[in-house]
Write a sequence for this structure.
């Protein structure tokens, strides 16, 4: 039973709490997200150009670029840098593929103290699990639509 | 004597001694100067945050007993709890001592509930000296209730932090120290706040609504 289905749910109090919360600085947050997110994409594009220059093409090129970005995301999470970037950039560092890497690596680091198998391996997908489930699920749906239409 | 939800202690149990251990962030705040031990390292020399929390609690209890000039033999009971599952920090901290332990789970009001119960026990004469103590750790609470520390998510401006620290006090029938005159047993008040980052707003009505 959640608070909202109860008789004691008090909309006046919730509105009062909302007025007391310090306001979110939307413009500043959007600008930071745009800047950092754009920078991550520029780095990705730079890596892509470099790999293309090295002779990769097509799927190989896209795959290699993603792998390098995922590695960088994991590496910076391990160094404790990515959460600082995330605190500043918000969606700018969550939406790119590096954010996904961060969401898998961070619980892995956090739960390592509970053991390698029951801690790290089992809890690794606590944050990213939902993304994977709905990603695969929507992939199947789109595939079915593509098959029949 | 009881009036409404408030109990009055006629034998006046007193807080004879107390001790506090706090983390590095807390020691920079206004209450930092009152802590007996301010940690420089939030791990407290342990391998996990949970062990650090347990060690802080154990240290606070031992220090509170020592500061009051008591020994372990004088203490009749320990009332303690924490924020983790199965109040595990308090249970493991109690392992370090040779007196009985009563676990209290009351989330953020664990300390006040422990003092209330301790004062009741001492007032009624069931024990002469009771220790009330609690502890919490930002990193272990964050892991249990919210997201991993390394996850790059933004904290909303109204977000509150769980204290890294532990505190304990000895409630005794001695005639010195802070007198505990009465205590109010709280009700659970749920106004429907669902924001995990704003637990203060969820808890505030319980304080405001209480009828004496």
């Amino acid at each position: 039973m959640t608070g909202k289905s109860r008789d004691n749910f008090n909309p006046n109090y919730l509105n009062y709490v909302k007025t007391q919360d310090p306001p979110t600085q939307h413009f500043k947050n959007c600008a930071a997200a745009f800047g950092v997110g754009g920078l991550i994409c520029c780095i990705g594009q730079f890596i892509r150009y470099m790999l293309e220059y090295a002779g990769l093409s097509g799927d190989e090129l896209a795959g290699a670029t993603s792998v390098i970005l995922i590695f960088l995301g994991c590496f910076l999470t391990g160094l404790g840098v990515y959460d600082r970037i995330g605190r500043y950039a918000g969606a700018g560092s969550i939406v790119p593929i590096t954010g996904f890497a961060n969401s898998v690596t961070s619980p892995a680091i956090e739960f390592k103290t509970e053991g390698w198998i029951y801690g790290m391996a089992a809890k690794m997908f606590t944050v990213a699990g939902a993304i994977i489930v709905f990603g695969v699920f929507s992939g199947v749906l789109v595939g079915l639509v593509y098959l029949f239409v | 004597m009881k009036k409404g939800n408030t109990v009055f202690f006629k034998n006046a149990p007193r807080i004879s001694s107390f001790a506090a251990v706090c983390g590095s962030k807390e020691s920079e705040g206004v209450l930092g100067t009152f802590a007996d031990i301010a940690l420089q390292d939030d791990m407290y020399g342990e391998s996990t945050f949970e062990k650090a929390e347990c060690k802080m609690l154990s240290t606070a209890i031992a220090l509170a007993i020592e500061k009051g000039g008591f020994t372990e033999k004088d203490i009749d009971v320990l009332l303690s709890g924490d924020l983790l599952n199965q109040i595990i920090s308090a249970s493991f901290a109690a392992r370090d001592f040779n007196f009985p332990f009563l676990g209290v789970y009351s989330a953020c009001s664990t300390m006040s509930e422990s003092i209330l119960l301790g004062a009741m026990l001492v007032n009624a004469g069931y024990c002469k000296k009771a220790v009330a103590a609690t502890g919490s750790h930002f990193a272990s609470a964050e892991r249990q209730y919210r997201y991993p520390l390394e996850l790059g998510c933004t904290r909303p401006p109204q977000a509150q932090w769980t204290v890294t620290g532990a505190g304990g006090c000895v409630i005794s029938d001695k005639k010195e120290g802070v007198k505990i005159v009465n205590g109010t047993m709280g009700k659970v008040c749920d106004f429907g706040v669902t924001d995990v980052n704003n637990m203060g707003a969820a808890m505030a009505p319980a304080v405001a609504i209480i009828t004496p």
About this structure: Residues 4 and 143 of chain A are 38 Å apart (CA to CA). Chain A has a mean pLDDT of 88. Chain A touches chain B through 41 residues (CB under 8 Å). The two ends of chain A are 43 Å apart (CA to CA).
